[in-house]
């Protein structure tokens, strides 16, 4: 029997922790567990056998870290081959009579993908592909992708599994305590994104105990149409007496798990800290539990890299400003490869309240196949709004969908066979919802009924291919009323027929309707309201249009979609403003509200713009003024957003890079202007071990250099021993240490202790946002510096007293 058959009528029992058991059996710290497949197969067989004996249906072979980034190719093959052999030996040796399946276990690569890290998406796909092919070659029954903390890497792994095997695939992510992946995505986003690529089960493993993950698993059950799996830890790992311990005992674990199965979880097991004892108890607790019936979800959802947007309620606003038709400035930017302009335009629309952004690069002389995927990738570094990938070029669409981190809305397919043959297979492969235009080989039918009939045909064809109804969004097409006076009426009627007749969601490109008439904004606004009333679910609009905004917020208020009119009241004063339709950038936003242009560029993560603005400002203001009153406040704002969970790691990283770009301009200028002076004394500086925050340290370095000190910069994440050695070797009399996190303060203490031992004459100054004079004293530092200027004063004072 295949696992996909077995799942249909049974709750599937998975296995429990492996790494923790191997550690107990003597696996040394730093030793790769996968090597034991070859060197100590009997230990691995023992663990697998114990899980099969405890009742597991699925056992994950010991291949979690088996990838070509960690093992040489022939070693990798040996490890995977032996891993699957060991699991088969265990299946044969075990006593249980239950159906048994062996999974190729696929864990993360251990590297961050671009843009957060340096591993390109396609490289990640290739790494996973190699593991998957070996799993297939050596007889795995299924592929179990697990403990993924980044949605993009999860997509890479799932794509590799699909492209290189016919095996069933389970996909499981590890969530942080705030209910999101490390890189920000929430369960609704993950579920929508992964499901489009047709895994056989999705779910959650590792990180926390079952109770702490209750909300996450419920979010899966609410959003997922495929079976949901749950494989939590025996609690959050804690260190006690130098040992890792887990605090959820088998009885509590199984109670919580049994409840989850009752709520609809279809595959249950454990992760770190769980043992065969937990799995046996779990089997007893869920024995005979009937699997929850499959419940396909019907909501239309699209996602960005961290956010899901659901159709229904008031029409969604899809920003149209990234479509070059009729927009000279954007055309120029696209021709000149001015990515920053495009990113700013995206950000401005997001600020104006757009829910998704249409991206189109269709211009003569532009290679869409290259530019569209690139822009889609770049846009996702500045916005987590879902993108609407708008192209008639199937290759460009394929490239962009492949690189997209989320579930996009594709714009568009139509009723012509050629179009459906080109677009639907891409939707099936990469996942996505798709805008279907009600036209075909014969053009656009003049009547609403004709358009509804085409919609019906498109829907039937999509369903025949296995694409669910929720993923087809119809655009009944509206021409200009100036050319066709019935155009608006026809489009409105077609909307009504499709929405009520087919029960599908709809979208309209609104602005067309007013083409050729004066005060287009007025017409567009009223048309928005009429269309919304007729069943329009989303509108492709100019989010800066005052009339559209009026219509949108008023519609929500009147339809009781805006609780207590909160949003309407908040926006009301602005809704009377004169139309700002296509006004130039920058002039539109209230500057004072959220900082200067440079601060905003840093907050948004616009590297090029941050550098450019800094260059301009350097003519007017002293460099340190820019550091202290622009760069630092912007980073503080980002840090606060991160803390309050309004921003996530990708945004933090982009802002840091933009701040870095601004700072680099300042540094280069300072270096060029520096007057050579006699060096005062040597100062060693470093960010302590475990800490990669180096912006503050670099500022300190710059200032010290400007004041004539010879700075030896050891970089970031520097082990205590290296700092102590450098102090001893160079005889530098002063060392500056930086730490930005509570978790790295102990490393600072350790460094100071070692310095006292290895370079007793050396004085130590410390700084960084987590410190204050008290903690500095408690750590045994000689000086504490609140900011970079304070560092200089300390150094000056130190030199005088020497
Ligand atoms: C930018 C940033 C990042 C960037 C760092 C890029 C880089 N190259 O530095 C990236 C995105 C990589 C990052 C990663 C992480 N970050 Co971070 N990050 C920040 C952020 C927003 C700004 C830090 C900064 O550069 N400030 C501006 C500089 C100029 O200020 P400063 O460093 O304090 O330096 C000044 C003074 O302190 C002093 N000074 C500094 N060093 C020294 C040294 C001496 C000797 C002296 C005398 C003075 C001195 O002078 C400087 C100039 O005036 C802060 C929030 C904040 N507002 O601090 C969070 C923050 C520090 N990060 C945080 C966290 C949690 C993380 C991550 C763990 C996130 C994650 N989940 O992965 C990782 C940690 C990675 C690691 N192992 O270090 C937390 C730390 C919480 C805590 N209290 O422990 C913060 C506070 C955010 C938050 N509010 O939650 N982060």
Q: If you had to describe this structure to a student in words, what would you say it looks like?
A:
With 802 residues, the protein is α/β, with parallel strands linked by helices. The chain is 48% helix and 14% strand. The chain has 30 helices and 25 strands. The chain has an 8-stranded parallel beta sheet. An 8-stranded parallel β-barrel has the order 13-14-15-16-17-18-19-20, surrounded by 7 helices. Strand 17, helix 17 (448-464) and strand 18 form a beta-alpha-beta unit. Helix 22 crosses helix 24 (623-643) and helix 25 runs parallel beside helix 26. The longest helix is centred in the C-terminal third of the chain and has 25 residues, at 649-673. It is flat. The site of cobalamin has 38 residues, from helix 24, helix 25, helix 26, strand 23 and strand 24.
Instruction: Give the fraction of residues assigned to helices.
Output: 40-55%
Q: Round the mean pLDDT to the nearest integer and report it.
A: 92
DSSP helical segment count = 30
Note the overall shape: flat
Bound molecules: cobalamin
Gyration radius, rounded: 30 Å
Strand elements, count: 25
- From the helix content, strand content and strand pairing, which structural class follows? alpha/beta
Strand proportion, as a percent range, falls in: 5-15%
Order of strands, widest sheet: 1-10-7-6-5-4-3-2
The low-pLDDT segments are 579-593
Task: Give the terminus-to-terminus CA distance.
Answer: 81 Å
Largest sheet, in brief, is: 8 strands, parallel
